[in-house]
Specification:
The complex is a heterodimer of chains A (241) and B (499). Chain A is an alpha/beta fold. In chain A, 14% of the residues lie in helices and 28% in strands. Chain A has an 11-stranded mixed β-sheet with strand order 1-2-3-4-5-6-7-8-9-11-10, with helices on both faces. Chain A is globular. In chain B, helix 4 packs across helix 14 and helix 8 packs across helix 10. The chains are: A alpha/beta (241), B alpha/beta (499).
Chain lengths: 241, 499
């Protein structure tokens, strides 16, 4: 089903059309309408041409959202299952508190990507950012996988400041030849081993296939892996009173 | 040097004691011990938290817990508690951690407010012979009456929640309290036609059947939040803050993330459950609006959204923002609100009395003509039916009770929740302890409490000549202050007694 966002009122009407459609939906001329595909369930694909507004794919529950364009803030907020593919850049707070599913961003992501993602058994959220990510990446990370490929940012560090503050689970991979310094005390940084890379390889391959990017160089280059220094960073902080 | 003499002493009346040993088998803290060799029961006062479990269960009435009487050479400035806290921190370097609400020496405004009754000029109403209405309906009200082309009324009422009386059980997560405690609250809420609240801990599979009486909570950690969870209750509460610890997040240690807790929160066993201090997707009223509407979209506009905030400075202006953000209900939590664990300094020093916050919010929303955008639920140490009546007269639509509900279930306020060894089976996940709390018994006790309160509310209303709780809402003429300053009376919007 094709729907032009120009011909349908606001986000409520658009989302009602997405909810009630019994087939895949293609929204064209999207221009900032929020909450596109909220809690979209398994079995439905939403394609969006244009720029969806904040909180696209929030609570996504198994559906697939592909955006031919950029996305704004809070995409994939508290996402549960499914896939979000963005052929452009993403705004701030990408994948906040995400617990499952995959997000692929071809370009850059803003501040606070992957804050407080968490994993449980076979639910393991993955975010792959093709370009750079802003500051506060993966704060409070409790589980899951964050990958920053740094394509086009080879000459600079593809991440901002304060990465992984409060991190107590999960892994952050950063592809760069630059040194990663000034990390918070809760975060340990190491060069990724072949075993480490094996865990992200399927996601990088999917990224390369989705966006038709050359795979070889992405697999060869240097990756750093950031992990929590301890699983329970706060356990000695308190005294009973 | 790090020895602190116990606050309490276990006194055993040897003449009454028949060595049944219920005390030593029941105490999870190991304060009682049976010496096989001498055949005697001994006590270790250092381990006693004064939870009264042994006292209540001792059929011989052979036990009592009394103040030990040991005193430091304290004065008004350097009180014993202050000195002990320094000792504890000098020993450990830790942040002081306390259980339950602010115990501080602040004025309890509810206790300085008295209620009106009818005399001569209008008749009081006897609830035994007249119908009394205690039902309330919470949510936004539409601004305009809409009619269709034929002039018929269009039902444009947003989704609301309905309560048989203006009392709900406050948010307490599965994890902070046991599954049996949750079951007791849910079953009592169902029987009484009110609601309980999941807190931020997700919803155990056994609890979905109570959906019609459930408020599901979404907090900064988003634990256990997924579309089925959001759709399972009758309302969704966004927790921005908690009265006991405004401005800080929560932290359930990894040692408590085991078994079903891990499953329900959907995080790995042994991993800490950290709720960040802010929601990192909410830095403004506009961002809050975004979360509210994403929740409404996820649930097809079928559930009212509650925004819970702690009572702090400028709370009236904050509430005004929330009332314009698309929220249907504001839940206000005062600085005496309970908690399983909070840093002592935060609990005892941050936040403001809920009576003042409530009165300010109600007034500003009325002044700005947006009072009907939202309902108000108030919590933070509502201890009795008269607190409920006073809260309603200060502008609340309903109240939340947490501590009072726990006490009804057996809690004796020993304030050691954070140890996870609650002898009453409430604030613990240890199977031998949780099974002590029988949901059928605790449910009955909660129902009894609310039934008693309902009668009392009806009597107080009747005395004032009011037969519907809605007529009492914000009705400050029914209140008078005793011993309050002019400024306090002004904030509360009430007159002094005698005026």
């Amino acid at each position: 089903m094709n729907v032009s966002a120009l011909k349908v009122g606001g986000f409520m009407e658009l989302n009602e059309k997405i909810r009630s459609a019994d087939s895949d939906v293609h929204i064209t001329d999207c221009c900032g309408q929020r909450f596109m595909g909220t809690a979209l369930a398994k079995g439905k694909k939403l394609t969006i041409t244009g720029t969806p507004g904040n909180a696209a794919g929030a609570y996504l529950n198994g559906g697939v959202i592909e955006v031919i364009g950029n996305v704004q803030d809070a995409v994939g907020d508290t996402m549960n299952l499914g896939k979000i593919i963005v052929h452009g850049n993403a705004g701030d707070a990408l994948g906040y508190a995400m617990r499952g599913g995959n997000i692929f961003i071809r370009g850059n992501a803003g501040y606070r990507a992957g804050v407080h993602m968490k994993a449980y058994k076979d639910l393991k959220p993955v975010i792959v950012i093709g370009g750079s990510a802003g500051s506060f990446l993966g704060e409070y990370l409790a589980g899951g996988l964050l990958v920053v490929l740094g394509i086009g940012a080879e000459e600079t560090l593809p991440v901002g400041n304060f990465i992984g503050t409060g991190m107590h689970g999960g892994e952050i991979f950063i592809r760069t030849k630059k040194k990663i310094a000034d990390l918070p005390a809760q975060v340990a940084v190491n060069a990724a081993t072949q075993d480490d890379l094996a865990r992200i390889k399927p996601h990088i391959m999917e990224f390369a296939e989705l966006f038709e990017v050359e795979l070889e160089s992405l697999l060869e280059d240097n990756y750093y892996i950031l992990t929590p220094n301890t699983q329970n960073p706060y356990h000695l902080m308190y005294v009973a009173n | 040097m790090n020895f602190i003499y116990p606050e309490n002493e276990i006194v055993r009346n040897e003449k009454r004691c028949n060595l049944c040993r219920v005390c030593d088998t029941q105490c999870s803290y190991g304060a009682h011990e049976f010496d096989e060799q001498s055949g005697q029961l001994n006590s270790d006062d250092r381990k006693c938290v004064n939870c009264q479990r042994c006292v209540v269960l001792c059929k011989q009435m052979a036990l009592k817990i009394v103040p030990s009487g040991n005193k430091y050479k304290e004065n008004y400035n350097w009180r014993e508690q202050t000195i002990k806290e320094i000792f504890r921190q000098a020993d450990s370097g830790g942040v002081l951690l306390s259980g339950m609400g602010n115990p501080g020496d602040f004025k309890v405004y509810f206790d300085k407010i008295v209620l009106n009754a009818s005399q001569v000029t209008n008749p009081s109403i006897d609830p035994l012979r007249e119908p009394m209405e205690t039902r309330v309906s919470l949510g936004a009200l539409p601004r305009d009456i809409e009619r269709d082309g034929k002039g018929q009324l269009v039902n444009n009422l947003p989704p609301r929640i309905n309560l048989s009386m203006p009392v709900m059980f406050a948010a307490m997560s599965y994890g902070s309290i046991s599954l049996n405690a949750h079951k007791s609250l849910a079953a009592a809420a169902q029987e009484m036609g009110v609601l309980y609240n999941t807190g931020e801990g997700g919803l155990h599979g056994d609890m979905y059947s109570y959906g019609g009486n459930t408020v599901v909570q979404v907090a900064s950690g988003r634990f256990g939040v997924h579309p089925d969870y959001l759709r399972s209750g009758v309302a969704i509460e966004i927790k921005m803050g908690q009265g006991a610890k405004p401005g800080i997040g929560g932290h359930l240690p990894g040692t408590k993330i085991v078994g079903d807790i891990s499953l329900t929160r959907m995080i790995s066993e042994g991993s800490d459950a950290i709720s960040p201090a802010p929601h990192h997707d909410i830095y403004s009223i506009e961002d809050l609006r975004q979360l509210i509407y994403s929740l409404k979209e996820a649930t097809g506009y079928t559930k009212p959204i509650i925004v819970k905030v702690a009572a702090v400075n400028n709370i009236a202006a904050i509430a005004s923002g929330i009332a314009r953000s698309g929220a249907d209900i504001i839940a206000l939590d005062g600085f005496r609100g309970g908690t399983g664990a909070a840093p002592t300094r935060i609990r005892d020093n941050v936040g403001i009395p809920v009576e003042l916050a409530l009165a300010s919010i109600d007034r500003i929303l009325r002044d700005e003509g947006i009072r009907n955008n939202v309902s108000i639920i108030v919590g933070g140490s509502i201890r009795s039916s008269s607190d409920v009546v006073k809260a309603v007269a200060l502008g609340a639509d309903s109240v939340y009770i947490g501590t009072a509900a726990l006490i009804a279930m057996g809690c004796h306020l020993c304030r050691s929740c954070y140890t996870g060894k609650c002898n009453w089976g409430i604030a613990t996940q240890i199977p031998e302890l949780t099974k002590r709390l029988k949901p059928s018994v605790a449910q009955k006790r909660l129902v009894n409490l609310l039934t008693g309160w309902k009668h009392e509310i009806e009597e107080m209303m009747g005395g004032m000549g009011i037969n519907s709780i809605e007529s009492l809402k914000g009705n400050r003429l029914m209140l008078r202050g005793v011993g309050l300053s002019e400024r306090e009376l002004e904030v509360l919007g009430i007159k002094h007694a005698g005026e």
